[in-house]
Amino acid sequence: MAERNLKKSDLVQRSIIKKYRKNIWSNFVGAVQEYELIKEGDKIAVCISGGKDSVLMACCLRQLQKHSEVPFELVYLVMDPGYAPKNRELIEYNAKLLDLNVEIFESDIFEVTDRVGGSPCYLCARMRRGCLYSKAKSLGCNKIALGHHLNDVIETLLMSMTYSSEIKTMLPKLHSTNFEGMELIRPLYKVKEKDIISWSNYNELKFLQCACKMTEKNADIELMSKRKEIKALFEYIKTQNPEVEDNVFRSLHNVNFATLPGWRDSDSGELHSFLEKY
User: Fold this and answer.
1) Helix H or strand E segment including 76
2) Ramachandran class of 211: left when φ > 0, alpha when ψ lies in -120 to 50, beta otherwise
3) What is the pTM assigned to this prediction?
4) Which of 7, 5, 27, 4 has the alpha carbon at shortest distance from 17?
5) CA of residue 71 relative to chain centroid, distance
6) How distant, in Å, are the alpha carbons of 93, 162, 205 from that of 98?
7) Cα(99)–Cα(17) distance, rounded to whole angstroms?
8) What are the tens digits of pLDDT across the range 14-58?
9) Scanning 100, 106, 154, 208, which has its CA 20 to 30 A from the CA of 261?
């Protein structure tokens, strides 16, 4: 009976630590602790795009802030890069529904990427991050939090190997190269996308999918997405090996340099060969 009297936002928060304690909450807390993502006194800009991932991240961080012995501040930040009115309204509706006190600021990123042409997704992502860093820093934040999850990490690895001829992926945290003193963290680093989708469906929440104006005008951009190709590849492999996602993720933490014919120095960018020590 008591649960029936709870607000929607309370029910959503409760689902994270009750029904999804193992698959979401434990993995979220595990990433925060293992990768040392949050320190005492941090002021974190929680960057909410309107999608399921970033909203779940915001809910998890709010829950952690409530119970953590380490004091830190949160600012819920939403950048409107030129959303259609209905998409902006959905973000505002969800923020109110979940009691997230968001600060919305506007940019002209969609307009700029449309005008420039070329690879819109890559340019948009870079410009978005720069705007978020800049706004967060102006608010006194020292970190921004993005909602990338485990599948983003392993898909990026395979995309880099198959399309860029290098082995690299997303780090759980990294220092900004353009905004001194700022850091990016990814608290959902260990959380799987399927569990985020399950959480969203369980709570009957509706989020933005792709709200980009470029894909609205040209559906082929979305259909040709390299990430979609990699997702499909993982789905196929899972029919033969259900542990493939976990195995690929763990492999990132267990790299055997002695078996690699070459690698690049992370500081100088200099290429090295196994022949140097053969």
Assistant:
1) strand 73-80
2) alpha
3) 0.90
4) 27
5) 23
6) 9, 40, 10
7) 17
8) 999 999 999 999 999 999 999 999 999 999 999 999 999 999 999
9) 154
